[in-house]
Amino acid sequence: MSEVAQTLNACLASVRGKTDFHPEIALILGSGLGNYAQTVRVECEIDYHDIEGFPVSTVVGHKGKFLFGFVEEVPVVIMQGRVHYYEGYSMTDVVLPTRLMGMLGARILFLTNAAGGIQDGMQGGDLMLITDQISSFVPSPLIGPNVDELGTRFPDMSHIYDEELQNAVRQAARSLSIDLKEGVYAQFAGPNYESPAEVRMAKMLGADAVGMSTACEAIAAVHMGMRVCGISCISNLAAGLSKHTLSHREVQETADRVAEMFQQLVTESIRRMKTE
Ligand code: HPA
Question: What is the pTM of this model?
Answer without folding.
Answer: 0.95
